[in-house]
Specification:
CATH topology of the domain at 47-191: Rossmann fold
Number of helices: 33
Shape: elongated
Number of strands: 4
CATH superfamily of the domain at 47-191: ABC-type transport auxiliary lipoprotein component
Structural class: mainly alpha
Radius of gyration: 31 Å
Strand order of the largest sheet: 1-2-3-4
Distance between the termini: 133 Å
Length: about 650
């Protein structure tokens, strides 16, 4: 039977509609599936970067390709690469040697122990004059392949270019968005260097740095720069290395060079260089914090930035923020030893001595040679009147170049805190000599100028002047020049102190610490020397936002002195009490003892004889073994006698 025309048309329409609907359903469903299908990795996962397998006979690839791949992957905001520090800590926990090769079962075991999702393995092989690079990403629990990529290089000079292509392909396959790849995919030759030999030297230098062999890393950073004078990251590494051994002048030279070359690195490294430059060269801590916050937002899972922010907030005098950032760093990377280094002083600044000690001891259990933690434990022992604890850290430092001198300088401060100035001088001289022996001239000058300020506070004007001049003959670095200028001001050498202050103001116009901490202190002391107490108070107002930061305590102490000189005893007492309330910031600075004397003077001016006597007694008890010829001690005894 024939089908009526209208029926055929209606049926065709129904069929067409069904086909269209089915097509639409398939398209929408496909889009939905692609959008919601599980990706190999998520932005919550971490990955372990294994060592490359080098089947060629050329050793230039050893360590170099892993370093290059690390730079390529770490510029990604999506991927989270486990730090080398944590990898080596895990290897030690596994009973492996620190330099064990991270390949095969070893890399997978590290991946599992760090609760990572995958391990990235690489291999380079040679076929005639060509090279083949292979990257493979596998689930470290079940061995499932998550991604792989290959790239060929026509010759050795194009190996780094091929590595970049393979890395980009792997990032895409692991789930990173196209937008992210386009924005954060600087070629390796541009991000680091086109020279394999330079990259190899840089790789060796960074590994030595990681192992704490900072001095040994210097020639390798220099070799990398010699091979490629435009290698920005090598200048950064050299800058940090010099900073680590107490040579801020040399560090600034290299950070500046890196800053000039910052357009030739990844976005992440560019921000890091800008941070290092603003922090170590310009000294603009507010700008540095701004850059660090951009880093923290862009690479929200990165573990380094919160620790850096913690240090900066500590310098800016914001201890609560410093602790919060250190805690955030610990949350992001709970296995990192750097967390203990940031958390310990953060607790210390807030007078949380018990937590500071526990944190430092936990860190030392993982790294017995952690120098900053040893310093912190000495300071904690001092605050807890633990002489044996201090002696333990000093004994540990014996014979360790670049370390023993720092502990001896702390010993000088402790001796001076009790008025044993002759003993303090011996410790300082030993610290200076040891620093000079290992070529750390600026460190030696810092010890010398610190001792000079101490002498000035005690009223030993001749020694203060001599120490300042001796320090300046060695270095005119920022900190040394400030301390020398302050020592000269305390000794009454107004002209030289003023000249040094003017020079600091000219050389460091944007330096937060210089402008809002160093210069006000020098100028306030000069005003006090001229009996201009109100002016000294006014000048020191600039320090208020930062007074609990770098050099904490001394500006508060000086403001108290200025109020005393202005006969404002209530305000003076309040300032001196601040110092007693922040012992974790002042630690063993001499003002921690001298403040009791100044508080006694404030109470005496107020007419409260009982409180005045008590404060004088506190000071004289602390100085019961003090050298008898110290001018400020003679004054204190004479004033106390009048109160009887």
């Amino acid at each position: 039977m024939a089908i009526p025309a209208f029926t055929r048309s209606a049926g065709l329409g129904i069929l067409l509609s069904a086909a269209v609907l089915l097509a639409i359903a398939l398209i929408v469903g496909g889009l939905y599936w692609r959008k919601h299908a599980s990706k190999p990795l998520t932005d919550k996962d971490t990955i372990v970067l294994a060592d490359f397998t080098n089947t060629t006979s050329d050793t230039v690839f050893d360590g170099t390709l892993r370093q290059g791949l690390s730079t390529l992957l770490e510029q990604s905001p999506f991927l989270n690469v486990v730090s080398d520090e944590r990898i080596h800590q895990t290897l030690q926990m596994m009973g492996q040697k620190p330099d064990a090769k991270l390949i095969g079962q070893t890399s997978r075991a590290v991946c599992q122990r760090t609760a990572s999702a995958a391990v990235v393995e690489g291999m380079i092989s040679q076929i005639g004059t060509q090279y083949l690079l292979t990257l493979r990403v596998t689930n470290c629990v079940n061995g499932e392949s998550l991604s792989s990529a290959e790239a060929q290089a026509s010759d050795k000079n194009h190996v780094l270019e091929a590595l970049g292509k393979a890395a980009s392909e792997v990032r895409s396959k692991l789930g990173e968005s196209l937008n992210s790849l386009q924005k954060f995919d600087t070629p390796l030759e541009q991000a680091t260097t086109p020279s394999l030999e330079a990259l190899q030297a840089y790789s060796v230098a960074t590994e030595k740095n990681r192992q704490g062999e900072v001095v040994s890393s210097l020639p390798f950073f220099k070799r990398a720069i010699q091979l490629d004078p435009n290698f920005a990251l090598a200048y950064v590494g050299l800058g940090y290395a010099y900073s680590g051994i107490g040579e801020p002048g040399l560090a600034a030279v290299n950070f500046t060079k890196a800053y000039d070359l910052r357009e030739h690195v990844t976005e992440r490294e560019k921000l890091d260089i800008e941070s290092a430059y603003n922090w170590n060269v310009v000294g603009d801590l507010v700008k540095t914090v701004e850059v660090q916050k951009v880093l923290e937002q862009t690479y929200s899972r990165e573990k380094w930035w919160p620790n850096d922010l913690s240090i900066m907030y500590g310098q800016l005098g914001e201890p609560e923020k410093a602790l919060a950032e250190a805690q955030e760093a610990a949350r992001r990377d709970p296995g990192s030893g750097l967390n203990y280094v940031a958390l310990t002083p953060a607790y210390l600044r807030l007078n949380r001595f018990g937590q500071a000690k526990t944190t430092a001891e936990e860190g030392l259990a993982k790294d017995t040679d952690n120098f900053p933690l040893r310093i912190a434990l000495y300071q904690i022992a001092f605050l807890q009147n633990d002489a044996a604890g201090m002696a333990k850290q000093v004994a540990w430092s014996a014979g360790k170049p670049g370390v023993e001198d720092a502990l001896l300088s702390l010993e000088a401060g402790t001796a001076a805190y009790s008025g044993r100035i002759a003993e303090a001088r011996k410790f300082s001289r030993r610290a200076v000599t040891l620093a000079e022996t290992v070529g750390q001239k600026e460190v030696a000058a810092a010890y010398e100028s610190t001792a000079a300020v101490r002498e000035g506070l005690f009223g030993n004007t001749v020694q203060a002047r001599q120490g300042a001049v001796a320090a300046l003959t060695v270095s005119n670095g920022r900190d040394v020049q400030f301390l020398a200028a302050l020592a000269l001001a305390l000794s009454g050498d107004m002209l030289r102190a003023q000249a040094l202050a003017d020079d600091l103001a000219k050389r460091f116009p944007a330096d937060t610490i210089v402008q809002f901490s160093f210069l006000p202190r020098i100028r306030a002391q000069l005003a006090l020397n001229q009996n201009q107490a109100p002016k000294a108070v006014e000048v020191l107002q600039a320090v208020l936002p930062y007074e609990l930061g770098t050099g904490a305590g001394l500006p508060i102490y000086m403001r108290g002195e200025a109020y005393l000189a202005a006969h404002q005893h209530i305000e003076a007492a309040a300032e001196f009490q601040k110092i007693l309330d922040h012992r974790g910031i002042v630690v063993n600075e001499p003002i921690g003892a001298l403040v009791h004397l100044q508080l006694g003077r404030a109470h005496a001016m107020q007419g409260d004889t009982a409180k005045a006597r008590a404060a004088y007694q506190d000071f004289l008890t602390l100085w019961k073994d003090a050298d008898p010829d110290i001018p400020i001690l003679k004054q204190a005894k004479a004033e106390y006698a009048k109160l009887q």
